[in-house]
Each structure stands twice: as C-alpha cells, then as structure tokens.
Amino acid sequence: MSGRPLAGAWLTEADIVLSWALVFFIVAIIAAVLGFSGIAGAATWMAQVLFVVFIILFLVSLVLGRRH
Question: Which domain holds residue 22?
C-alpha cells in the first residue's frame, strides 16, 4: 500500500446519505419522465408517487445535511 486513504475514506456519513438521496432523486426524475409522458402508462401513478417521495427525501436530507 502506498499509504493513500481508501476511496471515499474522507466522506462523512452525512455525505454518503446525501449522495444516496441525490441518486434516488435522479431515479425518481427518470421514472417521472417516463411515467408522465405516457411511455409507461400503467406506471404513471407509481412514478408520481416515487417522484413526490424522493423530492421530500431529498429536501429533508438537504436540510439535515447542512446542520452541524
């Protein structure tokens, strides 16, 4: 080993949670675009629910991530 930290070793738990929230937010955006446009007509309701849930989770993690 060269003594360098492992990848991600400098990230805190809050950074990791915020990054996962961002990943889920992007997934919700993609699901919403596919669902709202009629491409996946049967999944429209689920896409709308996921979109709202992930926006709420994103905002909560954003607010809680800024508190120290």
Answer: 13-66
Rounded-to-integer distance, Cα 30 and Cα 63, Å: 23
Provide the domain count of the chain.
Answer: 1
* Dist CA 16 CA 18 (whole Å): 5
> For 22-53, how does the pLDDT look when each residue is reduced to its tens digit (9 = 90+)?
888 888 888 777 766 655 565 667 777 888 88
In a domain, 17, yes or no: yes
Confidence category of residue 1, pLDDT binned at 50, 70, 90: very low
- SS in 3 state form for 30-62? HHHHHHHCCCCHHHHHHHHHHHHHHHHHHHHHH
Q: Residue 2 falls within a domain, yes or no?
A: no
